[in-house]
Write a structure and sequence with these properties.
Elements: H1 8-23, E1 31-35, E2 39-43, E3 47-51, H2 57-72, E4 88-90, E5 93-99, E6 104-106, H3 109-120, H4 135-144, H5 150-171, E7 179-181, E8 190-193, E9 198-200, E10 207-209, H6 211-223, H7 230-240, H8 250-271, H9 278-289
Antiparallel strand pairs: 1-2, 2-3, 3-5, 4-5, 6-8, 7-10, 8-9
Length: about 300
């Protein structure tokens, strides 16, 4: 059965109930935790369900493989529930079930740096990870957007073309290393338990590419959005052992990250026209990229 378009909570609840019925899991009292790129639900029995966007079954399969691989190498991360054949696909959406983490707080940039240092030192796994390609998702999000006028959209498309050309030239540099990447490595994707263990979250963007990509995710929080302090960033660099902003290729990766965050806010504004912040924020971000809002760091506001 396929539902007519409706709100995210109602749609994901339908998907959740169908998947858990197939898996034999209880959904009594299930609670939504987060409705964003993926829908996250808390289930009885200390389980968490993760529901993908349509057509992302391969991503969910990769998440399971990555989580098991990280466990095998001693890197703390969210763990798939044992004894279940997953993912389960309902109306094109992949549902995966995970062990709920112990009581925790949000991670710090220092904890992210420590996890990245360990991750980047690992050999590549024996299952396939795609090479990093940031522009497919950017273009898809921009193409889905209907909230920006034609001049802004044309500017964004041209800007994307220019960045993609610069990225292609950067990749052929002989001293650019390659390793397993988290892909979206900011402190919000770390949870720190009361016993001091820091866990990696959101494993859906794992890929192979230059380690500088993962480091840029935190650097832009300082240089572009001003959402971390200079002291926090210095801690990140001290723990990891390098400062990516000193690398000549950093401005290219910074600009790609900024564009990616802007494209995300454009998609959210399109999908949720009544969102109290998204439309205003995407217009502001586009203005920043166009050079109309002064120098970095800008005052970007998170769009959940």
């Amino acid at each position: 059965m396929t539902l007519a378009p409706t709100d995210n909570v109602t749609l994901s609840r339908h998907t959740l109930l169908a998947a858990c019925e197939e898996l034999g899991l209880d959904t009594t009292g299930a609670e939504p935790i987060r409705m964003a790129e993926n829908a996250i639900w808390r289930l009885p029995g200390q389980f968490v369900a993760r529901i993908s966007r349509p057509g992302h079954t391969h991503v969910a399969q990769r998440e399971i493989a990555v989580a098991n691989w990280l466990t095998d190498h001693g890197i703390p991360a969210v763990r798939p529930a044992l004894g279940l054949v997953q993912p389960v696909v309902v109306d094109g959406r992949a549902v995966t079930i995970w062990e709920e983490l112990p009581p925790h707080r949000d991670g710090t940039v220092g904890e992210m740096a420590q996890l990245l240092k360990a991750l980047h030192a690992l050999p590549e796994p024996d299952f396939e990870l795609e090479s990093l390609e940031p522009f497919g998702k950017i273009r898809a999000r921009l193409n889905q957007s209907t909230v920006l006028g034609e001049p802004a959209m044309q500017w964004l498309q041209d800007y994307t073309d220019g960045l993609e050309e610069a990225w292609t030239h950067l990749l052929v540099e002989p001293d650019l290393s390659s390793c397993v990447l988290h892909g979206d490595a900011w402190a919000g994707n770390v949870a720190s338990a009361e016993n001091g263990t820091a866990y990696l979250l959101d494993l859906d963007s794992f890929t192979i590419g230059p380690r500088e990509w993962d480091l840029t995710s935190t650097a832009v929080k300082l240089t572009s959005t001003g959402s971390i302090t200079r002291r926090e960033y210095e801690e990140f660099c001290s723990v990891y052992g390098t400062d990516v902003t000193a690398w000549h290729g950093y401005p290219i990766l910074r600009d790609i990250r900024e564009l990616r965050m802007t494209a995300y806010s454009a998609r959210i504004a399109t999908e949720h026209p009544n969102h109290p912040l998204a439309l205003q924020e995407v217009k502001y971000r586009v203005g920043c990229l166009m050079g109309r809002q002064g120098q970095r760091p800008w005052q970007w506001t998170a769009v959940p």
